[in-house]
Automatic annotation (TrEMBL):
It comes from the Bacteria. InterPro entries: ATP-dep_AA_Ligase, ATP-grasp, ATP_grasp_subdomain_1, CPAse_ATP-bd, PreATP-grasp_dom_sf. The keyword Secreted does not apply. PANTHER family: ATP-GRASP ENZYME FSQD, FUMIPYRROLE BIOSYNTHESIS PROTEIN C. It comes from Peribacillus huizhouensis. This is Biotin carboxylase. Keywords: ATP-binding, Ligase, Nucleotide-binding.
Amino acid sequence: MKKIMFLGGSTQQIPAIKYAKEQGYYTILCDYLADNPGQNYSDEFHCVSTTDKESILEVAKKKNIDGIVAYASDPAAPTAAYIGNKLNLPSNPYESVLILSKKDLFRRFLKEHGFNCPRAESFRTIEEAKNSMHKFQFPIMVKPTDSSGSKGVSRIDSNEEFESAFELAISNSREKRVIVEEYIEMAHEYMIGGDIFVIDRKLEFCGFLNCHRDKQVNPYVPIGKSFPLLITEEQIDIVRNELQKVIDLLKIKMGALNIEVMFDKNGKLYIIEMGPRNGGNMIPDLLEMITGVNLVKGTVEAAMGNHDFNIIYEQKERYYSTYVLHSAEEGKLVDIVFKNGIDKNIVNQVIYQEKGSEIEIFNGANKALGIIFLKYGSLEELKNKMKNMNQYINILLK
């Protein structure tokens, strides 16, 4: 029986483990959390941090694995590549995955290779950062170099706001490093996001989606994705071509990449993120609903060296979204109430928190209560309901 190792066993990572089990693979899970839910679906569990490369390598060698996957996990993606390279398993170059995983390394890569890139610099101390602030024009973005889900991200408009933004960012950074970069004004309503898939170094699937934010709670934390994409075909071609250039330069061979890109007021494309893993918030599940393409299958099979992944699909006139259930307040969860007929749009829901759970303010993707999948009859209905979801959902706390 072939063995596959998974790095991370959160609720969002379970679909990949379940798929592998269904295909008859022996599943080995590593996670630093002893109570992770993924272990209930795995054949074997090891309580090891997914960022501890040498410890994971030791387990991988001992178990003689045939493949390794860091599904929907930024921190674990370099580890998976490191193990894959060391054991000659299907994988992407470790140095390339590291570049894609660290915001400061990725900005440097983009600048060195002539891509559009905002002025950016990374720092370990606030004193070091303050001494360089004269180089930047406000507004600026302050981010951890190595966090996902927009945790610790701020936009600031003055020097007076800088210290608190830096402290927030560094507290959310595993490596205690912060990147400061100039703000780019977007020319379209929604950030362009979603997952793409590479087969034999070629971009074969583009699951582009609109990225929604809740400006009243946190304007930089995603609260959902929607389809169809609201940019032109010409812009879509530009995005595809620029992403393929990155894939070529970094010698990315296979697998899923989670992207965020945008066009500025002058029509220039900026690649904001290109994470070397499947997207969180169940993006692959939404894309399968829209296209029929199973990116969970693609990710697992690519890691096992199987390349007969079918990415052919017929584009249809459909209107879909996900919405991340979240709270602007903290307290104990009493209930999640759907009202004003929104339940007729809901085609699936995954609830993370039980009644009575302690709920935190939604300042990062890890504070989500769950995700709902919705289908609409028209684009107008989609846009109206996504913009006014507080009229359709009540998060009751005490």
